[in-house]
Amino acid sequence: MVASKGLTYQQALQNAALYLEQNDKSPQGAERLLLDRLGWTKTDLLMRFTETISDEEHKQYLSDLNEYIAGKPIQYIVGVEWFYGYPLKVTEATLIPRPETEELVQRALAALEGKGPQKVLDIGTGSGAIAIAMKKERPQDDVTAIDISESALAVAQENAKQLHAEIRFLKGNLLEPVQLETFDCIISNPPYIGEDEIHLMDKSVLEYEPHTALFAENNGLDLYEKMAFELPFYLKTDGCLFMEIGFKQGDKLLALYKQAFPDKTVTIEKDLSGLDRMLIVK
């Protein structure tokens, strides 16, 4: 890319898009890197298109572009990902929140619509994405979030503070920190990728995202099996459960959770890509 001398933001963006294309990366990444680093909206950028980018900003932009070309996810470069309309800090201690998980939150919110204050539990909160979205959308609810990783919890707590979401964060494995408690709604996006699926994964995910939040034993089913017969003791009689699952796990988990919840309706629902992605118990 050319030096920043006299470059406008528009020219810098155009050069960056071409630079990415020449290096076999999506040119759309150029705008995302610029906006998130500057903390701008698209409107901000349009309003300042003809202004000159500073040397310092251009130097940072170049560095970000080169990291992206080298394979680092944009979210880890700029330290931000948007989830359900909220900006979340992400680090390599946390998974990058995905659109499929937004669908899970959407289903949970729909199930709670019109209900009074609820007790909500998020198991394996990571960046705090699910818990924060639930609390922001339903401020009246009492939300608890659990994670086994101290570093992930620190990120989640920072996100909650920044977004003014009052959430109880607990460190521990699965349901251990909330023994003897019951909840109206339990949501979880546990590690569900089996070793047999590693070859399907993007290189940047394998190199940068925390493996403990991605992979589970027994073809990715380990944590679902551990929780299956514990969850009924933590879910209120009229409560609901929402879990994100791997696209190959629907049939096995449907059978397992029907056995665990014989008096409830258990369904597997597809994401917008048409893949089995959600286990729902009502």
Automatic annotation (TrEMBL):
SUPFAM superfamilies xref list: S-adenosyl-L-methionine-dependent methyltransferases
Transmembrane spans: none
Biological processes per GO annotation: methylation
Family, similarity comment: Belongs to the protein N5-glutamine methyltransferase family. PrmC subfamily.
Domain Release factor glutamine methyltransferase N-terminal stretches: 11-79
Protein name: Release factor glutamine methyltransferase
Stored Pfam families: MTS, PrmC_N
PANTHER family per the UniProt record, alphabetical: HEMK METHYLTRANSFERASE (PTHR18895), MTRF1L RELEASE FACTOR GLUTAMINE METHYLTRANSFERASE (PTHR18895:SF74)
Protein's UniProt keywords contain S-adenosyl-L-methionine: yes
EC number: 2.1.1.297
GO molecular function: nucleic acid binding; peptide chain release factor N(5)-glutamine methyltransferase activity
Gene: prmC
Binding annotation for substrate: 189-192
Swiss-Prot/TrEMBL keywords: Coiled coil, Methyltransferase, S-adenosyl-L-methionine, Transferase
Domain Methyltransferase small, first and last residues per copy: 111-195
Reaction(s) catalysed by this chain's protein: L-glutaminyl-[peptide chain release factor] + S-adenosyl-L-methionine = N(5)-methyl-L-glutaminyl-[peptide chain release factor] + S-adenosyl-L-homocysteine + H(+)
Job description of the protein: Methylates the class 1 translation termination release factors RF1/PrfA and RF2/PrfB on the glutamine residue of the universally conserved GGQ motif.
Residues given in the record as S-adenosyl-L-methionine binding sites: 124-128, 147, 189
Family annotation (InterPro entries): DNA_methylase_N6_adenine_CS, HemK-like, N5-glutamine_MTase, PrmC_N, RF_methyltr_PrmC, SAM-dependent_MTases_sf, Small_mtfrase_dom
Coiled coil: 146-173
